[in-house]
Amino acid sequence: MQQFTGPLARAFRFPVRIAVPFRPCGADSPWMEGFSVNVSRTGLLLEADSPMAVGTALEIVLEFAPPLAKVFCTGCVVRTALAPTRVWTVALTIERYRVVQR
What we know:
The structure is a single chain. By secondary structure, the protein is mainly β. A 6-stranded antiparallel beta barrel has the order 1-2-3-6-5-4. It has one domain (about 20-100). The chain has strands spanning about 20-25, 30-40, 45-50, 55-65, 70-80, 90-100. The protein is built from no helices and 6 strands.
């Protein structure tokens, strides 16, 4: 397997399956819920019930099992696709985050 290094290297993705509340940034809209497929230090692949426009800014909450952390993130949708399972996959960058220790 080829290893990539340097500025174009992709961050390692961890296969983490957790419920992920999300909503558009700055909106007082209700939280929607999706499920993570994988997460890295720079992004998240999310399964959602509906597509989202590329460029949409989102608020995301990643809540890992105690005694781990709750992470509040903002990110931007970079890709949306309909998976063979008829669920939408939404790829987004993580632009800012704040960790709350339990």
